[in-house]
From TrEMBL:
Keyword list, A-Z: DNA-binding, Transcription, Transcription regulation
Ranges of the DNA-binding region feature: 40-59
Name of this protein: Transcriptional regulator, TetR family
Transmembrane domains' residue ranges: none
């Protein structure tokens, strides 16, 4: 019995997702055991039973991407947070609530998630990559805020707001109390953009 193209495609997608998951899990385990800088991509590929070339097909950003993903995932999540915010919720409130679930801001994270967040903050290469991922979402975030507020996409004020929001994970995430720092940052943003719905 011949398989339909859709069934073959579904199987391929499941296999890709399983490979990505295996690589990411192996990387996190090795990084937490030995430290980010003491693990090679070859060791990660071997632990996930794949080739190094396969690792780079799935994670072109290399070791950092194995921990932090890519900008496309972040852009989509930020856009969804703004577009799907609850009725009556402000754009800033939605962005604050979204960031409050991520990395060092997450309340009561699983122990491994806390250790990964601590690893990112303590590892210069990971921290720099995380900041780059966040700030690379600036144009997309400004665009979705413009769409949701009826403003022009080139509005400098919205581009500034997007940049400030996207700097918060790097700045507030390293404070002794990241959640309090997150609240402080958004309190300042609310004063700077009081008319933002």
């Amino acid at each position: 019995m011949a398989q339909t193209p859709a069934r073959v495609s579904d199987r391929r997608e499941r296999k890709k997702a399983a490979t990505r998951q295996a690589l990411s899990a192996a990387a996190r385990r090795l990084f937490l055991e030995r430290g980010f800088d003491k693990v090679t991509v070859a060791e990660i590929a071997d632990a996930a039973d794949t080739a190094v070339s396969t690792l780079f097909v799935h994670f072109p950003g290399g070791k950092e991407a194995l921990v932090l993903g890519d900008a496309g995932e972040r852009e989509a999540a930020l856009a969804a947070a703004v577009r799907n915010r609850p009725e009556g919720s402000s754009v800033l409130g939605a962005l604050r609530d979204f960031l409050a679930t991520r990395g060092p801001f997450a309340p009561d994270p699983e122990p491994e998630a806390r250790r990964v967040a601590d690893l990112v903050v303590a590892t210069p290469a990971l921290r720099a990559y995380a900041r780059t991922l966040w700030t690379s979402c600036e144009a997309a975030l400004a665009r979705v805020i413009a769409e949701e507020t009826g403003r022009h996409a080139d509005d400098l004020s919205l581009r500034l707001l997007a940049r400030y929001v996207l700097e918060i994970p790097d700045l507030a995430g390293t404070e002794p109390d990241p959640r309090a720092a997150l609240d402080t940052a958004f309190s300042h943003l609310a004063r700077g953009w009081p008319d933002l719905p």
